[in-house]
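The protein record quoted in full:
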Amino acid sequence: MKKLWAIICVVGYTGFWTFGFIAISGLFGDRGGVWYNLLFCLVGLGVGTYARIKIMGLTPRMHGRRAAARARLEAEYQESLS
C-alpha cells in the first residue's frame, strides 16, 4: 500500500510543479494565463501532500530502535578494533 501512496505522491507533486510552472509562465509570457492551470496546480499540491501524510502514517517509528542499533554496532566495531 505504501508503494501506491508513493506513486500518488509523485504524480501529485509532479502535477503541482508542472501546472505551477505553466501558471507562472502565463503571467510573464505574451499569452495570458488560464485559470484552470492554477486549479490543477493546487489540486496537485493537495493530492501530493495528502499522499505524503498517508505515507508517513504507514511508516513505522524508528527513533529509539535506530539509535539503540547504531550504539550496538558502534560498540561491536570498537570491540573488533582492540
In short: The chain has a mean pLDDT of 88.
